[in-house]
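User: Hey, quick favor. My workstation is busy. Could you predict this chain's structure for me?
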Amino acid sequence: MMYNHHEFFPLADLLNSLRRLDMAVKAYVLVVTDPGKTAYVVNEIRKLPNIGKMHEVMGPYDIVAEIEVETLQEIPPILGESIRSIEGIQSTTSLVTLPE
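Assistant: No problem, here it is.
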């Protein structure tokens, strides 16, 4: 009897397995800027590596930026040495996502 390999390992299972191997770590950074400095800060953050989506928002924060890296250990230097050193940032709050 001949079996179709898709019966035992469908494409969806293969894709899910590959996604698990490529486990990127994401963090969202909520940024409060000095009045009038939001546009400048947005432009500076966009220049940084590992920055994904970014949005100017209304509310207690001015910017939400997504960081995507391969390991959790890569996040602190991006926050401390890159983002928090940008002139015009008052404060940041970081939210690291849990693995799926």
